Task: inverse folding
């Protein structure tokens, strides 16, 4: 019966492709830093680009450390 089946979300059926996520994150960081060499005059854009790239790098480093210590799947 349908009432007895457990409710699951789609992400419970397949593992997250960790390697693809790391490659995509690295590509995004590089692209953000390459945008520093553009035609903008002020430094506000540079601060945002560096800040967002740094935030992504910190998130990726935390994920790597957590996975290495077995605290994350």
Result:
């Amino acid at each position: 019966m349908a009432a007895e089946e457990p409710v699951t979300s789609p992400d419970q059926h397949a593992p997250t492709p960790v390697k693809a996520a790391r490659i995509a994150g690295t590509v995004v960081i590089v692209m953000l830093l390459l945008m520093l060499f553009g035609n903008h005059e002020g430094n506000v854009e540079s601060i945002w680009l560096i800040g967002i790239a740094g935030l992504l790098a910190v998130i990726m480093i935390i994920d790597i450390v957590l996975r290495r210590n077995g605290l994350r799947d």
About this structure: The chain is about 60% helix and 0% strand. The CA atoms of residues 13 and 41 lie 48 Å apart. The chain has a mean pLDDT of 87.
